[in-house]
User: Fold these one by one.
Assistant:
Number 1:
Amino acid sequence: MIVRRVFAFLIDAVIANLLSFIPVVGWLIGFFYMLLRDALTESGSPGKKVLNLQVTTVQGGRVTYVESIRRNIIFAIPTVFSIIPIVGTIISIILALIVYLVELLAMVSDPEGRRYGDRWADTVVREVITYFHLK
């Protein structure tokens, strides 16, 4: 499931980066997309939906916008530095790589696959099991 989570994140990151190309407000829209993505729909972010994953509370409930922000703020912080021309972009990339590595290591080392963002928000990523009925 870890590989699927990484690919789901990459899909969401591509969406956020594409949104950032919208003139004037694109960066802000992409930033808020990354913060709120897990609460946008019942099934979570588009990346998770494509890979049959879902973020829920530990108790199994739907994730709220506040929980989505708590879970994703760690990924949003490095992007703030990209406002600063050139140097900020370099700082943003370095910080982002550090955050991604730390979160990946946390996810791999946790028995439930929870990263720090999941622990702060009291959430968990689950596989969505779908059944097909053939007639």
Number 2:
Amino acid sequence: MIVKVQPDMQKSQALRKIAEVTLERIKDTDIDKYPSNILVDYYETIHKLLEAITSIEGTKIKGEGAHQELIDYVTKNYSLDEQTRQLLQQMRDYRNRISYEGLMINKNYILLNEKKLKEIIELLLDKLSKLGEGKGKA
């Protein structure tokens, strides 16, 4: 469910900081030993950035299916392509399966998608910065 809330620059800044810290952890994590953890960290990084964007604009997505709806909302409203939306939804599904079913991800999945994931993160950081320029510092 999408609801309008007061724009929250502080929350956006905090979410961005958490995303940046998680990116640092990815760099320090051994992909051969922990590919599933890296996938979860990439997903969580992107999720925090998506939430940071909606926090600035004053949108809150909550309830069952909120992660799925957040991905769809930001990709639609911020002109991200369908390939990006599908990759993020796939990662959301894998992250859930890792957390709830013990799914193990092969490192090849990370290696095949890492360039695109880094591009998505840079794109979201850029959109976040542009949003923040008019409403304070993001």
Number 3:
Amino acid sequence: MAQSFSAMVKEELLHQPEQARHCGIAETAAMVSMSGQLSEKEGKKQLVIRTESNSTARKYFTLLKKTFNISSIMSAGHLTNRKKNRVYALTVEDSVCVDQLLQTCRLSEQEGELQLADELVIQMDCCKRAFVRGAFLASGSVSDPVKTYHFEIVCADEKKADLLCGILSHFEIGARIVSRKQHSVVYIKDSSQVMDVLGLMGATDSMMQMQNVQILKSIRNQANRSVNCDTANIRKALRAAERQIEDIRLLQETGAFDDLPENLREIAQLRVTFPEATLADLGEMLDEPVGKSGVNHRLKKIAQIADKLKDGSEGSAAVRDH
């Protein structure tokens, strides 16, 4: 089964070069805030972090070990309401380590949710980028750009969503929030802004791939517009030629054709003989070639004479008037 674009982006982010400790703290803060939960076992505090990706679970394990020197226990299972999806859980069982982690990440439990108590860990731009990356790895997705442009991060509450929107706004990326199934979803639909956020997180290869898709789409759309425009122009020219031939036939049927000046008879005969020729082509076929405007002027005169005949004027009189 082919890997989704969203999975490709996450895979790229999971293999980012080793970062400074302060950025590791910011990324961990986002990760724990988005997918971590405090619990108690035998009266001791525990932290459980869940993800549906084995690769992401390994990333979390490494991040905790390298950034905080905290060991976690990794296990796998299924959520009862989503039996098809395997869930990986990292558990930090040492309550002292849990407190150390929460304090360093500036996280506190509020109404059952782990929230950023202050923005100390995301003061620097590099840490803000790491925080967005951690949040996306924990609960984000991005659509295949071939189909549509859509980036989102699902947050447990509006407070977390507001924090993310504020960080993205700092980088001039306009994200919006929508409620979905008791969650607050931060989303971006503008293609250039989606590319900006991919670059912001460090997914430069995915950003370039999306840019290539956008270029191909633009070329294809431009080609389609050009074909549609050409088709419309051809249809318009053919309808005009049909009307011109109808006028000429009227002149022939009423005997007014023979009374036309030589230059009008010549262009009329060419129009009937070559109904699909352009005005420029007709002009080149004349004994004394004229330009497109000259041909158009002559055909308009023929149309005016035909209109006179339709209004009831005598054939020779209608010709003399012109």
